Amino acid sequence: MRKTYKLAASLSTVFLLSACSSNGDTSSTSSSSSTNDGSGDQVVHYTAPTELSTMDTALITDINSSNYLGHVIEGLLRIDEEGNPVPAIAADEGVISEDGLTYTYKLREDAVWSNGDPVTANDFVYAMQKLVDPDTGASYSYLAETIKNAPEIMAGETEVSELGVTANGDHEITFTLTQPTPYFKFLLAFTAFFPQNQAFVEEQGDEYGTSSDALLANGPFTLENWDGTGLTWDLEKNDDYYAADEVSLDAVNVQVVKEPSTAVNLFEGGQTDNAHLTGEIVKQYADNENVVVQKKARTSYLEFNWDNEYLQNEKLREALGLVINTDDLVNTVLGDGSTEIDGFLPADFVSNPTTGDDFTEETEPFLSYDVERAQELWEEAKAELGVDSISLSFVGDDDEKSKQLSQYIQGQIQNNLPGISIELRNVPKKNRLALADSRDFDVLLTGWGADFADAINFMDLLYSDSPYNEGGYANADYDALIDQAKTTNANDEEKRWADLQQAHTILTDDFVFIPLYQEAETQLRNPAVEGIILNSVGVEFDLSRASVKN
């Protein structure tokens, strides 16, 4: 999803400048897909790496869908260009009680849905109740766990009407928490906490959020020409948006392009305004003046299915991690600016509240490339398991980058650990998410993009009953530390930090995951498109204030 509040330095966006030509010679380029004609129309042609899975705020799980949902629907708050939550549908900064347990916001009275209905406090109440309703099955419901009665509702013990989110008339809302939550304002800017028009949603039923016709907008754009499965869709300026005069673009035409070479050809031909680059193509365009590199608070890793009897063997899990050369992976296979990681969290994300040291600086190195040791462990694992060979299914997305990663990892394992066969299953993202949810994999190529800048956003993923714990890992000591960080020590920064560091040590001691890389995205970007806001967490890019240069 899958997505900063400032406990630490935010990740930076780096721009690399040089020169190219439209004939494929990377010395000069002049792509000009965007339209700004005499009529004043401003149209951007954008490529996306994957399909949209859903536009239902309660059901969204992947970052690509969240990116576009964030252009269509707004919440109480939004993240500005500095990475801070600022008013959106909220009329002002709101009032937070001294004990940090109540948040009250007045709503703008000029915010409307695309069918003309006003955006009301009940829209937020309804959406939040839907998020925590166990019948919804929302993966992000756990983010609401500090709201009064949310845990009891999610457990089926209390009615959703008892949730601590209250409409005080049409244009004021209050959130009542059971404990201080330092990052709560940032949750209010996250797509899972966005409003829904109750009457419209109930009219659409199960179809809500599955197509353009089954969606209402209250944000800068409406979503058009999306049938729920197609590889194209459009964002069209929402003239009823309260800040429509600040939106310059008339439309953003989006098409899914999974192969970087195809995207580059479209860009060079002036048919698109961006192109995602990976591997050798990145190297070819390293000196191109139109290259933009964005470092993200997003990691990629391998997750194990703990139901697999072979993968319950710790030595096997460690051996699998030790044969993956992540230096070669980031520099040769990816080559897009992504960097190695040796833990679960990205670098430059959160820092020690006392010393200022990065979280990753305080963790021990983990699974450093060592083929000889891996082979020793594999021999010991075979003896313990009573087998000479095993076969493991490996599930990942079907975009070109994921395919390259999957093939590389398959080769590293099979070439260095004879007797292990890796069956690749690269499928569309929607299918991969379904396979993950049903635990229909042995090894899963997955990742996480931060929704907010707190270590808990990552560490919560592997809590025993987390919906994002696809592999089914469970450790009572780990759960206890996470619980402690969120309750007893929630307001004690030093103790909370120690809890999270200790929890991370448990993950590495158990070899719960195989870290791969911290993501950086390299794109060719048409310089005529100005004003795109890039975020390291949450919605990754914002086109609502972009424009096409004359």
Level of helix content?
A: 25-40%
Q: Gap between N and C termini, in Å?
A: 35 Å
Q: Which range does the strand content fall in?
A: 15-25%
Main structural class: alpha+beta
Largest sheet: 8 strands, mixed
Question: Can you characterise this structure?
Answer:
- The longest helix is centred in the last third of the chain and has 17 residues, at 400-416.
- This protein has 2 domains: 50-254, Dipeptide-binding Protein, Domain 1 (Dipeptide-binding Protein, domain 1, Alpha-Beta Complex); 298-519, Dipeptide-binding Protein, domain 3.
- The chain is built from 15 helices and 23 strands.
- It has helices spanning 63-72, 121-132, 150-154, 184-187, 198-204, 260-268, 279-284, 314-322, 326-334, 371-385, 400-416, 429-437, 456-459, 476-486, 493-509; strands spanning 13-15, 35-36, 42-48, 77-79, 85-87, 95-96, 102-106, 165-167, 172-176, 221-224, 232-237, 251-256, 274-277, 291-304, 339-340, 390-397, 420-427, 443-449, 513-525, 529-530, 533-534, 541-542, 547-548.
- It is α+β, with helices and mostly antiparallel strands and 550 residues long.
- Helix 8 (314-322) packs antiparallel against helix 10 and helix 14 packs antiparallel against helix 15.
- Helix 11 (400-416) links the parallel strand 16 (390-397) and strand 17 (420-427).
- It is globular and about 70 Å long.
- The strands form 6 sheets. Strands 1, 13, 14, 15, 16, 17, 18 and 19 form an 8-stranded mixed sheet that branches. Strands 2-3-12-11-10 form a 5-stranded mixed sheet, with helices on one face. The protein has a 4-stranded antiparallel sheet with strand order 6-7-9-8, covered by helices on one side.
